[in-house]
Structure prediction request, 329 residues.
Amino acid sequence: MINWDAHACLPQHPLADFTPVRKLHAAGVNYVSLNVGADMNPVSQVMSVIAGYRATIAAEPEHYVLVSSVDDIIQAAADGRMAVTFDLEGSMPLLDQPEMVALYAQLGVRQMHFAYNRNNSVADGCHDVARGLTPLGHRMVQAVNDNGILMDCSHTGRQCSLEIMEASSKPVIFSHANPYTLAQHGRNVTDEQIRACAATGGVVCVSGLSWFLGSAQPNADDVSRHAAYIADLVGVRHAGIGLDICFQQPGLDDTPPGEFDPGHWWPAAAGYNADKPPSFTPPEVWRELPAALRRTGMSDKEAELVLGRNMMRVAQQVWSCPQAPAKAA
Ligand SMILES: [Zn+2]
Prediction:
C-alpha cells in the first residue's frame, strides 16, 4: 500500500527545512510531490530552490530519495524512506522554450501545470480572462507528454484546461483541486472538467485547503466527502489526494525578488484576502483518511485506490515513456 500526496509546498527557499516532509512520512505518506516554483518565481529563484532541495535530499539518504519511477517509490517504501519528486506551478519558468521541459525533467520535476491563477503566453489561469491554450501551449503539452511528466491542470482556466486535456496524448491530472459543486470557489473544477479528466484516464486529487473544501477547519471527513463526490461522478479510479499543505517556516523569507504583487496572483475579486489566510489539514490527517473514506461507503480496496493506487497507475503510464530520464540526474 502506497499513500500518495500529489502536492505540498515548503518555503521557496534553498534552505527550507524538510522536517514537514518527515512529518508527512511519519503520518504514513510514502510519496510527495514538492513544489519548486510557480509563475511568480523568477527562474533564478526556481533553480536555487531545486539545487537546495536536491542537496537536502542527497545529504539525508536515510530519510529521502529523489525518485524517477513508481518502482523507485515501492522500493523507498520498503526501505522506510520518503520518495520525493518536484512540481512546477506554471509555465513561466519554461521561458517560452518547450525544450526547457526536458531540462526540468532531468532535475527531478515530474509534474507541471501551465498557469498559476493568471494568464501567460502558454495557458490561462483560473482567475483570468478565458482565451484558450495558445499555439505555444500546444507545443508545451507535446513536450510534457514526450518527456514523461504528469500534465496537471490545477490553477488553470476552465476552457483552457479542457483544451489541454483534449490535446494531451497521456492521462491528465488535477494534483490539487476540488469539485466546484461542493465548494463554489474559482480554483475548483466543474463536473465537465472532472469528466474530461477521467476521459484521459487521469485523476482529480482533493486539496485539503479550507477555501476549496468549503470548511473553515478542514478534516479527514471533508477531504473524503470531496473524494467520494469525484468517485460517484466518474468512478473511484479517478479520485486521489493532494493535500496542498503549505508549510511556512518563520524566519525564512521566500517572497519572490523584484516586483511582486500578491493581489495579482490572488485577486481580491476571486475571494482572496491577505488578512485571512486559509487553514490546512495537518499531515496527521493521513492517518484518519482510510477510515473517513470508508465512512463515505467505500470498501477498503476503493479507499486504497484513492489514497495512492490511482496515482501510481497514472504515474506508471506517464513517467515510463522512452524519453523520460531513467534516473534523476
Ligand atoms: Zn497550488
